[in-house]
Amino acid sequence: MDANSLLTFHPAPRKPSYTPPPGAVDAHCHVFGPGDVFPYAPQRKYTPGDAPKEALFALRDFLGFERNVIVQATCHGHDNRAMVDALMASNGLARGVASVAPSVTETELHALHEAGVRGVRFNFVKRLVDATPKEFYRGIAERIARLGWHIVVYFEAPDLEELTPFLSGLPTTVVVDHMGRPDIAKGAGHPDFQRFVALMADNPHIWSKVSCPERLSVEGSATNYADVVPFARTLVDRFTDRVLWGTDWPHPNMTTHMPDDGALVDVIPHIATDAAKQRALLVDNPMRLYWS
């Protein structure tokens, strides 16, 4: 995709009406570049605009969060330097999720751990990455489990049935990005989404991020992403101790619109409907997974 067709992050998000609880964590965000310092991967499927750590940390403070979990995005491939640079500059207020190849050495893994990395990401979204054998991932999973890390997986709803045996058999905590990208038009009661609910019910080691309504919604921001709320609320209500939330800033690979991050924060009380659930979602769960 041509870089000129992609949007850059919102230049002036509004202040949210909702105030996150003390210690709140934005548990899914990214840093990109700057490209002249941390070049983008030659094999990338898209080229983003730069989104440096300084902009991320300023947004964190503006939105009322205290910590970040910075997830390696596909545009940087297995070169985690931009993410690690942000971790090192965070004064302990950020943790990372890396992307690694089977050739990664134990020395490199331990260096990532010291920098604050606590997980690896496996991407199964076919439009973003080339097909990769499951054995590629299983070997990495076994190695990072020994470090106490977890696995973040990104896939789309049609691929869930084929991936279920693989996800169920992974040897450590698994966090699914964006509720497995359900088809919102089908409704939360549809068998497709209920298959994802069953996956979590049957596998206590599987968590979910209840994030990215801007990617999933059919109705869009005009209704405050109301059509996504039943999906996320179902997971928060049923699996309160296994859900995370994040902005997904700077919203990579968006081509239709660029969301207002303040508006995204204001969705939180609609999906986590009381203070206890909000604290679990924003503080207790990410702190347990990333800082314990």
From TrEMBL:
What one GO molecular function would you report for this record?
A: hydrolase activity
Q: Which residues form the Amidohydrolase-related domain?
A: 25-290
Please, which domain of life does this record's source organism belong to? Bacteria
What keywords is this UniProt entry annotated with? Hydrolase
List, alphabetically, the Pfam families matched. Amidohydro_2
Classification via InterPro entries: Amidohydro-rel, Aro_Compnd_Degr_Hydrolases, GLI/LigI, Metal_Hydrolase
Q: Is Hydrolase among this UniProt entry's keywords?
A: yes
Residue ranges, annotated region (Disordered):
1-21
Q: What is this protein called?
A: 2-pyrone-4,6-dicarboxylate hydrolase
Organism expressing this protein natively = Azospirillum doebereinerae
